[in-house]
Specification:
- By secondary structure, the protein is an all-beta fold.
- It folds into five domains: about 120 residues, Immunoglobulin-like, CATH 2.60.40; about 70 residues, Immunoglobulin-like (Sandwich); about 70 residues, Immunoglobulin-like, CATH 2.60.40; about 80 residues, Sandwich (Immunoglobulin-like); about 60 residues, no CATH class.
- The chain has one helix and 40 strands.
- The strands form eleven sheets. Strands 1, 2, 5, 6 and 9 form a five-stranded mixed beta sheet that branches. Strands 29, 30, 32, 33 and 34 form a five-stranded antiparallel beta sheet that branches. The protein has a four-stranded antiparallel beta sheet with strand order 4-3-7-8, with no helix packed on it.
- Strand 39 and strand 40 form a beta hairpin.
- The chain starts with 20 loop residues before the first strand and ends with a strand.
- About 25% of the residues are buried.
Length: about 450
């Protein structure tokens, strides 16, 4: 049989009639009030297939439904037409007034109704009472506004007003019911801040518009930008939007405007923003381009890591990337010395150089394995083990940081270095009184 799309029926609510069917009878309400003429009720099986849909019938102020719910056709095993044996179904209501779809009894906890049976189209046992109430929860219409710009010039052209659902009306200074829809005319509204209100089905939402004689732009640029930080997107730093930018290093791309420091030497540059029209204007602000450090280097010798190419006056930070943890997890080690002692094997290390402007540059990743050797500092390598839920070491420990396998820090502790609660596994990062560190995965 070929399904038919009836008047006002939602396009996706098209059941496929089969020879197996049972009918649900009931009274339909929305927030305790009878469903309206033109509303539809549909049944969906557990896989989301529409197994039945019909329009409600109004009679003496009540809204009734006689809903055939079709079963799966055994002759077409590759097609799911509807209900199967033991399968539950959910009910949905389509509101013809505004196109909303509601779930029974509510969207947060839609009820899976059991007990469907093929009755040759007769009312199904348990669903055969026309006065059984199926109440669909509803908190009122959801209204979304498409408001005019927050600030408009009095000489601007009228702009469209729109909202969802679109069956309501606008009110407020300067609102006009035009031939093709509602408009806001700033010249009709006059100077000042105006409240525009949209009302539908007894629910109202508002937005404010300020009409002014001029729209002189304002800029709120950062004081400085590092050369190594890449392009700076300028648009978020100007109001109102829609103007044009000029200045050294300024480039207009398809979707936004940038200042690219790659074209500029360190120094201070003027950036100008202009809005057009009778109410337009120009604003200029200065932006300093700071130099970024040269990329540092990492080398290894006899079990030690050395940070190189660090300019006089620059500080450094060592970072580690642990392969056991996902998402390229990086951890700052809080170690500012250019010589790093006792790095852990099978991890990636980076050095960050930071200059007096706060600009920084990272080295390339350096992989540490057994080929770098072991530093000879008169002590054996730091070793860790777990015993009775407590972390132990062959040297006095200063602190231990516990992480889960997603790289989230669970605990940073001093003695007695107890294992975190939970099933694990964990990664622990420990440091001894000589500044040596070691990483270990624990169950």
């Amino acid at each position: 049989m070929v399904p038919s799309l009836l008047l006002a029926q939602p396009a996706e609510w098209v059941p496929v009639p089969t020879n197996a069917a049972g009918t649900l009878l009931g009274t339909v309400t929305v927030a305790g009030e009878p469903a309206m003429a033109g509303d539809w009720v549909a049944a969906f099986d557990e896989t989301g297939v529409c197994a039945g849909a019909t329009e409600v019938v109004l009679n003496e102020g009540e809204s009734f439904v006689s809903l055939p719910i079709y079963g799966d056709d055994a002759t077409t095993p590759d097609t799911d037409e509807g209900m199967g044996g033991g399968e539950g179904f959910t009910l949905r209501l389509w509101r013809s007034a505004n196109g909303e779809i509601l779930f029974y009894p509510d969207a947060m906890e839609p009820a899976a109704l059991g007990g469907w049976s093929a009755t040759n189209g007769a009312p199904m046992p348990g669903f055969d009472d026309p006065y059984e109430v199926y109440n669909f929860a509803w908190d009122g219409p959801s209204v979304t506004l498409d408001c005019p710009p927050a600030v408009m010039c009095i000489s601007n052209m009228a702009v469209n007003l729109s909202a969802t659902p679109d069956n309501g009306s606008w009110s407020g200074p300067g609102t006009i019911a035009g031939f093709a829809g509602w408009l806001f005319d700033p010249s009709a509204a006059g100077l000042g801040t105006h409240t525009l209100t949209y009302t539908t089905d007894g629910v109202s939402e508002s937005c404010n518009v300020t009409v002014t004689e001029s729209l002189s732009p304002t800029l709120d640029l950062p004081l400085g930008w590092c050369q190594g930080d890449g392009p700076l997107i300028l648009d978020p730093y100007a109001t109102p939007p829609g103007g044009s930018w000029t200045g050294s290093g300024v480039l207009a791309l398809a979707d936004y405007v940038i200042l690219d420091p790659i074209f500029l030497a360190p120094g201070t540059y003027a950036v100008t923003y202009t809005t057009e029209g009778d109410c337009g204007g120009t604003a200029t602000a200065n932006l300093s381009i700071y130099p970024s450090p040269e990329p540092p280097t990492v080398t290894a010798l006899s079990g030690l890591l050395y940070a190189g190419n660090i300019a006089d006056g620059d500080s450094i930070e060592w970072w580690i990337q642990i392969p056991d943890l996902p998402n390229d997890t990086l951890f700052a080690l809080g170690y500012p010395d250019p010589v790093y002692v006792f790095p852990s094997w099978d991890d990636f290390y980076f050095v960050e150089a930071i200059n007096s402007y706060g600009c920084s540059t990272f080295s390339s990743a350096f992989y540490v394995d057994g080929t770098i050797g072991v530093a000879s500092l008169g002590a054996e390598s730091l070793r860790l083990w777990i015993s009775e839920g407590q972390l132990n070491a062959n040297a006095p420990l200063v602190q231990a940081t516990w992480l889960d396998m997603a790289g989230r820090q669970l605990r940073q502790s001093a003695a007695p270095f107890l294992r975190p609660a939970g099933p694990g596994p964990f990664v622990v990062w420990a440091e001894d009184n000589l500044g040596r560190t070691h990483r270990m995965r624990l169950p």
